[in-house]
């Protein structure tokens, strides 16, 4: 049987990155929202709501990065030097945020604010750097002779800074609506309010990005504004608008689960929109999936494992979420 | 690429991986130890095993978190600083790392939450299952990453394509490349020994305070069994690993031995200083015949010297020579402690022998030093190549300017020293708390770790646990 392995892998890597974005998105969002409350108990609740799952969430980042290395090594090798500083920044941010899960509870009370700051700053820096990487890739990078040929500050542009802030806003929305789902009482009401602000800010950024992006390169312009592409790209913004309305109504009606689910749908639609912009490239406008792919023997070998193992991973990950389902109660702790 | 950028990238990789290896080397052994403890608790019903389990799971959670965050850095080092290497080798070693993520990382992360927080949610048996799965995950991770590293040392099963990439020809040969089985055994045993010496030191510390502390007795006794059983096996495994290296990387062996001229019979140089400028090992103390005996298992076998190889293919001999001696020296000390422990046990004085306990405390970090020294030997000994004999280190680096590598190196050093320094301090503090029952461990209250007000059960009197309010 002849399968288009690079295409399959392009899809799988895209799924892994999306899984990372939504899963670590909400727990980075929780860190980003730390300053919205000064209450130590509420902060403990926020952190506890993701403590059993954050590590698994972050593993998708390793799969995204490691997967790119394995199946599109050429893409990995030109992208990483191009976004050198944002990647280092992201890693440092993830260190500060990751250890805070442990250290916040190991430190004395006087030093706890330091780990609160570490959690917040680590989360927001990681989110911003991921946005910078996204913006840099969408804009395109210089490649000559299979090697990155730009400078080490090329990633810093108004557009990438804007996508950096947009990712912060998006993660904040995911985090806030996650907390609406996991908390109750006063803290829940607090994050319902926060969700509204985050939703408004995110929609603002989405509009800005959508208007800006077509001017970045012509192929994007063509996909969104010319017939017949228009027919299948047009539903994306329409669905985003509908979902936003659903989100807003759910927040107004004090729904518990719908805001988070609606936020996930907004992320999915935005991601699909982005995918339309980038496809069939893996390094935008430089290498297509097929040009950057490792030989089929590598792709096939890893695909066998992926086909067997990813459903298992999804199953036990779902089980872990199921074990820790329900509202986090302050008196309950984690027994 | 200028050589400064190459050296900076090398130093950055060495620094980040040396810091990283501390945590997995410890958690591989600790995860198995925890699984054994929980199994013993379920089997015998003795509370002391649960107390020891809860004592160590706090430390496990801290170490694991630091292992995760320092490990993510490693996953991106290949791209940021070694992009040429990534492009050329990705098709071969990338899928192995992919398998590491799919079989090990997700498994560990998926069940870690249940292991740490789930005792009262899933029941004892399922909780034990989660602990065992986490232990299996750590071992699988070692399997794949050591396969990758071994392939870089002894590449096999590959072909080259027309753009100079290594491409897979035979996956079985790639995974089970010639040095892999030896390296895997040597490293997993090293991880077990590292953990045994840490556990032994902590047990000894609490025994010195109170030799009737039952939990400390369990730790100390189990650690001492591990030392006496595993250390001799590890020495044997190391010997076989060395013979394998002689076969596949003779220049590395020449550097480890400090031999410049091939000779047979060859003496074993115990101490000295290999001076590559002068082309001789200075100030040396030798034992005649011994190098031949160890490496060729005969009295007059020929042992290769560095002069057999072109000078540009020499590894930095002095580093390899010294780090190898540190590793072997610690191995000998480990064996002495193990024998001492066995002797005390036979005389029925295991918990009374204060000098043995003091020695065990001093030897607590020995495993870490040996692991880092051993890795220094094998990795520096691989130089000047990243893929041995095929791809030079100087041809592997990213097109990133030296200032960028400098800046990121300075940041990594600063952040690692602060963050992991604090983490190690917290680990020491957890170790110092008594695992004794009189300190108020409640039955059935799982230890809360990894961000969930950990060790609550061990410190029920601390009023600063905000969630208790």
Describe the structure.
The complex is a heterodimer of chains A (335) and B (469). By secondary structure, chain A is mainly alpha-helical. Helices cover 76% and strands 3% of the residues of chain A. In chain A, helix 1 packs across helix 7 (158-182), helix 5 runs antiparallel to helix 6 and helix 6 (112-139) crosses helix 7 (158-182). The termini of chain A are far apart. Chain B has a two-stranded antiparallel sheet. In chain B, helix 8 packs across helix 9 (250-257). With 469 residues, chain B is mainly alpha-helical.
Average pLDDT of chain A, to the nearest integer?
Answer: 88
Largest interface: A-B, 81 and 90 residues
Shape call of chain A: globular
Count the DSSP helices of chain A. Answer: 14
User: What are the segments of chain B in which pLDDT stays under 50 over at least 5 consecutive residues?
Assistant: 438-469
User: What is the oligomeric state here?
Assistant: heterodimer
Sheet with the most strands: spatial strand order of chain A: 1-2
What radius of gyration of chain A results from the CA coordinates?
Answer: 20 Å
Euclidean distance between termini CA atoms of chain A: 51 Å
Would you report the number of β strands of chain A?
4
Short précis:
The complex is a heterodimer of chains A (335) and B (469). By secondary structure, chain A is mainly alpha-helical. Helix content of chain A is 76%, strand content 3%.
Would you spell out the secondary-structure blueprint of this structure?
The complex is a heterodimer of chains A (335) and B (469).
Chain A: H1 5-32, H2 40-48, H3 54-71, H4 73-82, H5 84-106, H6 112-139, E1 143-144, E2 147-148, H7 158-182, H8 185-212, H9 218-225, H10 229-233, H11 235-252, H12 258-278, E3 281-283, E4 287-288, H13 289-292, H14 296-323
Antiparallel strand pairs in A: 1-2, 3-4
Helix pairs in contact in A: 1-3, 1-6, 1-7, 3-4, 5-6, 6-7, 7-8, 7-12, 8-11, 11-12
Chain B: H1 3-44, H2 47-80, H3 83-117, H4 119-122, H5 124-153, E1 158-160, E2 166-168, H6 171-175, H7 180-209, H8 214-248, H9 250-257, E3 268-275, E4 280-287, H10 290-296, H11 317-346, H12 354-362, H13 366-380, E5 385-387, E6 391-392, H14 402-432
Antiparallel strand pairs in B: 1-2, 3-4, 5-6
Helix pairs in contact in B: 1-2, 1-5, 1-7, 1-13, 1-14, 2-3, 2-8, 2-14, 3-5, 5-7, 7-8, 7-12, 7-13, 8-9, 8-11, 9-11, 11-13
């Amino acid at each position: 049987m002849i399968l288009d392995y690079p295409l399959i892998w392009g899809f799988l890597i895209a799924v892994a990155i999306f899984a990372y974005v939504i899963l670590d998105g909400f727990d980075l969002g929780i860190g980003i929202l730390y300053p919205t409350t000064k209450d130590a108990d509420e902060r403990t609740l926020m952190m506890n709501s993701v403590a059993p799952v954050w590590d698994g969430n972050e593993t998708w980042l390793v799969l995204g990065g490691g997967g790119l290395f394995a199946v599109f090594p050429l893409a990995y090798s030109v992208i990483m030097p191009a976004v050198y500083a944002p990647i280092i920044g992201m890693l440092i941010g993830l260190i500060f945020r990751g250890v805070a899960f442990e250290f916040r509870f190991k430190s004395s009370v006087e030093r706890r604010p330091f780990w609160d700051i570490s959690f917040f700053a680590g989360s927001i820096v990681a989110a911003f750097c991921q946005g910078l990487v996204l913006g840099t890739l969408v804009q395109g990078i210089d490649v000559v002779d299979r090697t990155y040929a730009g400078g080490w500050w090329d990633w810093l542009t108004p557009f990438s800074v804007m996508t950096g802030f947009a990712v912060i806003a998006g993660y904040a929305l995911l985090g806030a609506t996650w907390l609406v789902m996991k908390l109750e009482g006063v803290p829940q009401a607090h994050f319902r309010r926060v969700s509204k602000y985050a939703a408004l800010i995110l929609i603002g950024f989405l509009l800005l990005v959508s208007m800006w992006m077509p001017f970045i390169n012509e192929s994007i312009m063509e996909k969104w504004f010319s017939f017949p592409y228009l027919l299948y790209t047009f539903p994306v913004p329409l669905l985003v608008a509908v979902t936003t309305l659903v989100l807003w109504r759910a927040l107004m009606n004090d729904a518990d689960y719908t805001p988070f689910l609606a936020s996930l749908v907004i992320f999915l639609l935005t991601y699909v929109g982005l995918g339309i912009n980038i496809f069939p490239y893996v390094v935008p406008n430089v290498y297509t999936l097929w040009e950057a792919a490792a030989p089929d023997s590598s792709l096939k070998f890893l695909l066998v494992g992926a086909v067997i193992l990813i459903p298992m991973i999804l199953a036990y990950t779902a089980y872990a979420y199921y074990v820790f389902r329900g509202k986090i109660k302050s008196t309950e702790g984690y027994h | 690429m200028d050589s400064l950028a190459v050296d900076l990238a090398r130093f950055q990789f060495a620094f980040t991986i040396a810091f990283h290896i501390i945590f997995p080397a410890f958690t591989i052994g600790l995860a198995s130890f925890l699984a054994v403890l929980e199994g013993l608790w379920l089997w015998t019903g003795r509370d002391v095993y649960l107390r020891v389990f809860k004592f160590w799971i706090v430390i496990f959670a801290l170490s694991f978190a630091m292992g995760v965050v320092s490990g993510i850095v490693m996953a991106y080092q290949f791209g940021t600083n070694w992009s040429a290497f990534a492009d050329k080798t990705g098709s071969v070693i990338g899928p192995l790392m992919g398998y590491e993520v799919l079989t090990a990382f997700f498994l560990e992360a998926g069940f870690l939450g249940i292991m740490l927080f789930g005792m009262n949610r899933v029941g004892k048996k399922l909780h034990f299952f989660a602990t065992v799965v986490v232990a299996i995950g750590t071992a699988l991770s070692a399997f794949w990453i050591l396969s990758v590293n071994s392939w870089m040392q002894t590449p096999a099963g590959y072909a080259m394509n027309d753009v100079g990439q290594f491409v897979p020809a035979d996956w079985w040969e790639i995974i089970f490349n010639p040095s892999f089985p030896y390296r895997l055994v040597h490293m997993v045993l090293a991880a077990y020994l590292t953990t045994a010496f840490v556990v032994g030191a902590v047990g000894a510390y609490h025994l010195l305070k109170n030799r009737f502390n039952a939990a400390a007795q369990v730790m100390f006794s189990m650690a001492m069994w591990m030392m006496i059983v595993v250390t001799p096996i590890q020495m044997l495994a190391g010997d076989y690993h060395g013979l394998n290296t002689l076969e596949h990387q003779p220049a590395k062996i020449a550097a480890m031995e400090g031999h410049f001229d091939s000779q047979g019979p060859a003496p074993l140089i115990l101490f000295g200083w290999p001076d590559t400028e002068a082309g001789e090992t200075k100030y040396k103390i030798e034992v005649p015949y011994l190098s031949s005996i160890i490496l060729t298992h005969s009295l007059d076998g020929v042992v290769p010297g560095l002069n057999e190889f072109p000078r540009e293919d020499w590894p930095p001999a002095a580093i390899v020579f010294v780090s190898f001696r540190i590793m072997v020296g610690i191995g000998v000390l480990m064996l002495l402690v193990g024998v001492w422990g066995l002797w005390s046990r036979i005389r029925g004085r295991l918990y009374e022998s204060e000098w043995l306990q003091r020695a065990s405390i001093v030897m607590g970090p020995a495993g870490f030093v040996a692991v880092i020294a051993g890795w220094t030997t094998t990795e520096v000994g691989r130089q000047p190549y990243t893929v041995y004999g095929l791809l030079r280190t100087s041809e592997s680096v990213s097109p990133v300017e030296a200032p960028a590598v400098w800046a990121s190196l300075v940041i990594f050093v600063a952040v690692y020293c602060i963050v992991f320094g604090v983490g190690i301090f917290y680990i020491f503090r957890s170790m110092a708390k008594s695992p004794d029952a009189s300190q108020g461990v409640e039955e059935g209250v799982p230890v809360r770790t990894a961000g969930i007000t950990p060790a609550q059960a061990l410190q029920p009197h601390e009023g600063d646990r905000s969630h208790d309010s």
